[in-house]
């Protein structure tokens, strides 16, 4: 792999990582604001994990995963390359002697 391609690949990886971090903090803030009841605690409020409703937050995250799966299968199936089958012909692989000084017929030269 060329050095420039490795640099671009790592840059794309870290950009996607930072975008996902910002997106997850945005989702947590939205859940925190929407789940707050009148004067009560939200699903993520407080320090007592027994009173928090983390299960609801994970249900929402699982729902996003299901939506992503549906999105991927619907749009990904439209962009699959069609497969071609040429009759009943099959390609046959020919074994080639890869030794240095070997010939293509597979026979050993007599010396």
UniProtKB/TrEMBL annotation:
<keyword id="KW-0472">Membrane</keyword>
<protein>
    <submittedName>
        <fullName>Major facilitator superfamily domain, general substrate transporter</fullName>
    </submittedName>
</protein>
<keyword id="KW-1133">Transmembrane helix</keyword>
<feature type="transmembrane region" description="Helical">
    <location>
        <begin position="56"/>
        <end position="74"/>
    </location>
</feature>
<comment type="similarity">
    <text>Belongs to the major facilitator superfamily. Phosphate:H(+) symporter (TC 2.A.1.9) family.</text>
</comment>
<feature type="transmembrane region" description="Helical">
    <location>
        <begin position="12"/>
        <end position="35"/>
    </location>
</feature>
<keyword id="KW-0812">Transmembrane</keyword>
<dbReference type="InterPro" id="IPR036259">
    <property type="entry name" value="MFS_trans_sf"/>
</dbReference>
